[in-house]
Amino acid sequence: MAKPSTSKPDDAVGYELNTDSTTAGKGHATPTRKEREAANLRPLVSSDRKAGNAAARARAAEAREKARVGMANGDEKYLPVRDKGVQRKFIRDYVDARWSVGELIIPVMFLVIILTFINNVLLQNIAIFSLWGFFLVAVIDCVVVGMIVQRKLAAKVGADRLQKGNRWYTAMRALQLRPMRLPKPQVKRGQFPA
Question: Would you state the torsion angle of the CA atoms of residues 18, 19, 20, 23, taken in this order, to the nearest 10 degrees?
């Protein structure tokens, strides 16, 4: 229970309250929460739908173009998951630095298709069998380059830290025409990575 105060009232102490220091106010009432929220409201969709859609399309196109250029240049930020990492960059640089038999598979297939239109059975058979032979040589080349890259990567990062699928990634890159590879080749022929 509170005890009654034994002190004297303020006027009995010998001083009086200063009443002239109170301000007249800030000149307006404090806005209510509802008024503040209303002032901060902005429409989610602009009133001009055509202009808003055009601006959104322009932003999306700019972002896509930036991502396309970043991926083509090998920027790690824009690469898909299968292309990210130091090991995959090493593989890309190694494959791009060498000549691969698989690079020529599309032109050879195109030539065989043209040769099959000629009305000579012997020439058609030779073209088909030579295509299969070329395909076999390309597969052997992919297996060999896959083993070479695997061995070099094991020496570089350690055999226990190798990513899965490195040989397949190497083979798929080696079978593509150099201008069609994505990310674009960052090294010249003969410029093997260290």
Answer: 120
Q: What is the DSSP string of the chain?
A: -PPPP-SPPHHHHT-----TT-----SSPPPPHHHHHHHH---SS-S-HHHHHHHHHHHHHHHHHHHHHHHHTT-GGGS-GGG-SHHHHHHHHHHHHS--GGGGHHHHHHHHHHHHTSS-HHHHHHHHHHHHHHHHHHHHHHHHHHHHHHHHHHHHH-GGGPPTTHHHHHHHHHTS-GGG-SSPP-S-TT----
Q: Token pair of 181, please?
A: 């590879």
Q: CA neighbours within 13 Å on the CB side: how many for 87?
A: 25
Rg (CA), the chain: 38
Confidence category of residue 41, pLDDT binned at 50, 70, 90: confident
92 CB neighbour count, 10 Å cutoff: 23
pLDDT digits (tens, 9 = 90+) for 43-76: 776 678 888 889 889 999 999 999 999 999 988 8
From CA 77, how far away is CA 62, in angstroms rounded?
16
The total of other beta-carbon atoms located within 10 Å of residue 21's CB is: 6
Q: How far apart are CA 165 and CA 82, in angstroms?
A: 9
What global pTM score does this model have?
0.68
